[in-house]
Amino acid sequence: MARSVRLLAVLKQQLKLQGITYKKLAGELGLTESAIKQMFAADNMSLKRMDAICEILKLDISDLVLISEEQENKIELLTVEQEAILIGDERLLLVAYCVVNHWTFEDIITRYQLSDTDCIQQLVKLDKMNLIELLPGNRIKALIAPNFAWQPNGPIEHFFRTEVQGAFFDNSFDEEGCLRLVKNGDISMAARKQLVDRLKVIGQAFDDTNREERKLQPEDRKGTTMVLAIRNWQFQAFVELERKPI
Hints:
The protein is mainly alpha-helical. Helix content is 56%, strand content 11%.
């Protein structure tokens, strides 16, 4: 697939994620809805027009390129067997968490009590699982798609329910940058579906933020979990593997 076509595909994907219809986009650009449909159907768009749409999406064209590259030939779902392997080895699960979040080899061994040899061994395992590509110089290329998800009712989800969920919500959520929002009311199924779509947009915003924050140094970032609630939190087994200050 030509790069320009892939960028248009990503553009359509981002419009959908942000809930921007062709009709709404036409209004923003001063065009007719039919003109917008024809423009996308033809897989042919000027750089100026693409830039204008990116401005509406609050993205740069470089963001489209990055998303396109991340989606190309990337894993969207592990097998049940692969998830079971991760759950069965805390150090492997830790390194997998780090590489999914685009940590470098140096970042991992600096933060956690892993020797160079031990870390390389875990990376080799992930390479064999096709989660990463281990490059010369211990450089790591993650092969996880942005829409990567865990198996429904699989080992990771079961692990989350039994080992993570309770610990995560056992908190007052009163620290700065934390929120637990609980709402109750009687609403229709149609309204619930609309809220689900909006929440998916928030999930995409989290992924976009996570990708942007990779530019920061590891010490400027903290493990963060969001399940319609957000706070600084990491799995206790990972915390116990952190290097202690000298």
